Amino acid sequence: MVTDVKVGFIPLVDCAALVVAAERGFAAEQGLRLVLSREPSWAAIRDKVAFGVLDAAHMLAGMPLAMTLGLGGDVHQPMIAPMMLGQGGNAVTVSGDLFAAMSAADPAAMAGPRFGSNRALAAVVAARKAAGLPRLRFATVFPFSTHNYELRHWLAAAGIDPDEDVAITVTPPPRMVEHLSRGLIDGFCVGEPWNQVAVNEGLGHIVVTKADIWPTAPEKVLGLRRDWAEAHADTVAALIRAVADAARWADDPAHRLELAVLLAEPRFVGVDVAALDAALTGRPRLAPEAPPVDLPDYHVFHRAAATYPWLSQAEWLLTQMMRWGQMPSAGGESLATVAAAVFRPDLYAAALASTTHPVPAALRKTEGEHAQPYALATLEGGNLMLPADLLAI
Fold first, then answer.
1. What's the mean pLDDT in 330-335?
2. Are residues 129 and 198 in the same domain?
3. Is the domain of 253 the same as that of 153?
4. In this structure, are residues 17 and 246 in contact, taking their beta carbons and an 8 Å threshold?
5. Which domain holds residue 245?
6. Cα gap 79→341, rounded to integer Å
7. Final residue before a domain boundary, out of 157, 190, 213
8. How many CA atoms lie within 13 A of 269 on its CB side?
9. In a 3-state reduction of DSSP, which class is residue 47?
10. Same domain flag for 185 and 305
11. How confident is the model over 191-206, as pLDDT tens digits?
């Protein structure tokens, strides 16, 4: 018997594991048929999962936490995230005019490292304020997104107040390039392929990437309503196995071109194969007419525990919600309690027991403090190498 599971996604490179699970037979091997639904925005994903139109979804890592706590609106729905959908893929892209202004304001900062381009932006912000000009406008994809927190961290590190010195608005990923081209925003933080699309169309310059800010930051998760997951435990376990198998397939360099062609289909991401291939192979262009740069871990779908739902990353996301005034507290519960109710490494480990997927033995790790690769024990008794993960400051 085949079980249908309705799954929503946003057209981004990191929907890949869900698309591959549906299209390359991994879901069928687990007795599932994934009915994929391309959605226009993260708000649509949130609402359709909350009200049962979708069974599961490609979600921003902060969304299930925010929904469980009832933050940011009327949706208050207990959620779980039993696995991640990979790491990487975000970048901050600015308009040609802003890039030129930053380059003129501080050429040394723009020469690299890329994280330091925020100093050039700070000089532009200060000059605009002194001249009485309007604040620069940046877009992120959703208030409870890593994009929002990465952009704010990068701004704040240069002394730019994200709430006072610039304006930050919300724009769905597929609309970012259009809004930049119309001058509605001066820059954005979004996942690929939309940074590459902006560059390829001559509209934008990538000034910093997620890898420059925090290489292993949480990104997307598989999000499900808690009540649905408890009522369909076997289906959830099968879904975890199918998506983990698909993520491993997507991580194979030999499959990246095939994956780019698949994602280019209009029913999935629907952009030029070249933009997708550049992101997937870690050879993006950062500026129009510029040669590609080497970013080998620009997208990681499976290796280095990229699908494991670390409680420490859920806790970090909650601290960002508090840092930026999105919640005064966890409603009387500790951050650790909320994190453990939503991110579910126990379900991940149970689903992948007796498979060939390595599962970390720890529920948490020290986040953002490793300058070199390091090893962690697995439940199977071996070691898993994790990459350097310094959070830039």
1. 70
2. yes
3. no
4. yes
5. 3-87+218-279+298-359
6. 8
7. 213
8. 29
9. helix
10. no
11. 999 999 999 999 999 9
Q: Give 73's pLDDT tier (boundaries 50, 70, 90).
A: confident
Among residues 234, 317, 220, which one has the least CA distance to residue 19? 220
Which CATH number characterizes residue 16's domain?
A: 3.40.190.10
**Distance, CA of 324 to CA of 156 (rounded, Å):** 11
Tally the residues of the chain: 393
Band of the pLDDT at 331, cuts 50, 70, 90?
A: low
Question: Domain check: are 241 and 273 in the same one?
Answer: yes
Between 329 and 342, residue with greater pLDDT: 342
Q: Which residue has the tokens 């901050």?
A: 92
- In a domain? residue 312: yes
Confidence band of 243 (pLDDT split at 50, 70, 90): very high
The residue type of 339 is A
- Considering the domain architecture, whether residues 60 and 176 belong to the same structural domain is answered as no
Alpha helices, H only, the chain: 16-23, 26-29, 42-50, 63-69, 96-105, 107-110, 117-130, 146-156, 176-181, 194-200, 210-213, 226-231, 233-251, 256-263, 273-280, 311-323, 335-342, 345-352
Average pLDDT for residues 266-270, to the nearest whole number? Answer: 98
Q: What is the mean pLDDT of residues 150-171?
A: 98
| Same domain membership, residue 196 and residue 173 | yes
DSSP state of 57: E
C-beta separation of 95 from 204 below 8 A: yes
Q: Which amino acid is at 386?
A: L
Whether residue 162 contacts residue 325, with contact meaning beta carbons closer than 8 Å, is answered with no
pLDDT of residue 43: 96
Question: Are 229 and 346 in a shared domain?
Answer: yes
Partners of 170 in beta bridges:
140
Say whether both 355 and 273 belong to one domain.
yes
**Residue 328: pLDDT band by 50, 70, 90 thresholds?**
confident
Looking at every residue in the chain, the average pLDDT score rounds to 96
Q: Show which of 169, 193, 213 is a domain's final residue.
A: 213
DSSP characters over 60-107: ETTHHHHHHHT-SSS----EEEEEE--EE-EEEEEEHHHHHHHHHH-H
* Residue 364 included in any domain: no
Q: What is the DSSP letter of 125?
A: H
As a whole number of angstroms, the distance between CA 271 and CA 265 comes to 8
Indicate the number of domains in the chain.
Answer: 2
What DSSP state is assigned to residue 378? B
